[in-house]
């Protein structure tokens, strides 16, 4: 994700959610990434991660959930996650809502845009005070908390064309969540989907600006 801000010096730290997590106030931005785990399994480490997410949200500091992280964030804050009967894999076209068009993370993507999906579960009910930003038909693909620098995205802007083809071929040992993944790997869609990386860039820009404001405000107290 840091490569999406080439003119900004960013230091990244990676943590295994099954091990000790950092203090919720320690970093400017926290990203909870994808996983082959399912929120519904209630693995002890995932339950602990949800507790961490709730504490992080309470601090008012930026947090982004991606795929599993998007689902875990929604569930941790009182939303619901269920199995998606058909699964979703490959490049799909998403549509912004009015909330999405107004959100800083989506200012540089069109009202409809292609991006990469890879999931078998989905958020079916949002937490209180959350707004849908993007959809794939009836599936919530992005949401944000009102008055918080917190967002969840179900899709994967970081997936490159090479990564997409390797996933479709089962290079990671996992079967695609849906059978039509190959049909979506067209040159046009693969190229178009690179625009969705702007979501990462613009979220980080806005989050870092927001956190700078929070830090200054707390210092003045």
Automatic annotation (TrEMBL):
InterPro entries referenced in this protein's UniProt entry, alphabetically: ChyE-like, Class_I_gatase-like, GATASE
Listed GO CC annotations: cytosol
Domain (Glutamine amidotransferase) ranges: 12-163
Lineage: Archaea, Methanobacteriati, Methanobacteriota, Stenosarchaea group, Halobacteria
Coiled coil: none
CDD domains xrefs: GATase1_1
Pfam families reported in the protein's UniProt record: GATase
Name by which UniProt lists this protein: GMP synthase
